Amino acid sequence: MDHRAIKEKLLLYPDRALSESELSELEKHLGGCEECRQQLGRLQGLSRMLGGSAAVAPSETFTSKVMERIRSLEETPRAGWIPVLWPRWVMPALGYAFAVALMTVAIAHRVPFETGDPLSLAGVAPAEAWVLSGQAPDMQTLVGITMEES
Amino acid sequence: MTESIQHSSGEDLDIIRHVLEGDRNAFALLVRKYQDKVRGYCTNVVGHREAAEDVSQEVFVKAFRALPSFQGRSAFSTWLYRIMANHCRDWLRKKGRQKQESWEALLEKEGDRIEALLSVAPEAAVSTENSELVAKILACLGEKHRSVIVLRELQGLSYEEMAEALETTVDGIKARLKRARREMEEKTRHLFGAAGVQSGQEEGLWTTGR
Q1: What domains does chain B contain, in order, with CATH numbers?
Q2: Does A136 reside within a domain?
Q3: By three-state DSSP, how is residue B73 classified?
Q4: pTM of the model
Q5: Chain B residue numbers touching A47 (CB-CB < 8 A)
Q6: Out of B40, B118, B119, whose CB is closest to A56?
Q7: Contact assessment for residue B79 and residue B13, using Cβ atoms and an 8 Å cutoff
């Protein structure tokens, strides 16, 4: 094992779960590697600190409070509780199915898009359009009106 | 209760049978038996002493409600630890927006105490104040790292038990433990100083204690 591999192994050393051969290699390497010795010292220090941490005692009434909560659960049904009779995916699946059905109906009943003369599509007879353009004043009339106003 | 329940301890199985047959008060025996472990884990993972009491109670309530689904493929304790780990993780996610004290801020306030704690023998370090300090140090780790460190170092679970509790593989646990220890070691490296390493040398630490 090289230095890098030893450093990895050291991280599991506090668990005493390394094999005999791994431990032999470790000892051999540690004898000549100050950096790994320092790391092992730090890891063991951390392990000692954590392992020595005092157990956190629950409150004296812990058990009675748990049992009280269990009793209250049994006595009063949860507010807003609705029996779930189908799996969770059913409602979203129904939603998607409804959306697809709605799109199918819309596509089946859509008004076909007509192509052609925009005027005829708008309901304007072509002849009437020509009549309108024929009634438009010519340029001379327009200039005359402008001159009079000024 | 089925015949498949064979891996759990006989005592736990007897209690579970009584509970499922209608003697709900028998569940109190399981609560008393495992409350220290559950409370210890919740305190160190949740990080808030007061909230941990409530979270621990919720773990047992959840376990009670899920008891009919207990198949006995693993020990009751492992099954309970899985509920505990999941509940604490969910609680932390819900409270995710709450500001945690950063490692730098903790160092500034408690650096001397942490340094002292790292250099004393474990029996001398055992006190409520020191346990609170350890909980604060752990709170600076990510939830995944914190949970493996607490289960291994404070609760003494095996890799296999941890893998079941955290719903992963033994290799996954080893990898997570390595990352967690590396993070802790890097954070506290400068706090050990020469004194800590020397004391290790005197103890002959790198003969690996075999």
Answers
A1: 1-96 (1.10.1740.10)
A2: no
A3: coil
A4: 0.70
A5: 153
A6: B40
A7: no
Total tally of structural domains belonging to chain A: 1
What is the ipTM score, two decimals?
0.78
**Among candidates A37, A49, A65 on the partner chain, residue whose Cβ is nearest the Cβ of B206:** A37
Residue A127 reports pLDDT greater than 70: no
The reply to whether residue B208 touches residue A26, judged by beta carbons under 8 angstroms, is: yes
**Is residue B47 scored above 60 in pLDDT?**
yes
What does the DSSP assignment read for B137-180?
HHHTS-HHHHHHHIIIIIT---HHHHHHHTTS-HHHHHHHHHHH
Residue A12 forms part of a structural domain: yes
- Domain presence at residue A93: no
Give yes or no for B115 touching A (CB within 8 A): no
Please state, in angstroms and rounded to a whole number, the distance separating the CA atoms of residues B182 and A145.
93
The backbone torsions φ and ψ at residue B106, rounded to the nearest 5 degrees and listed phi first, read -65, -40
Residue B186 CB burial class (10 angstroms; 0-12, 13-18, ≥19): exposed
Q: How far apart, in whole angstroms, are the C-alpha atoms of residue B150 and residue B40? A: 9
Query: Using CA of residue A82, residue A85, residue A87, residue A93, what is the dihedral sign?
Result: negative
- A28 within a domain of the structure (yes/no): yes
Q: Per residue in A135-145, pLDDT tens?
A: 566 677 767 76
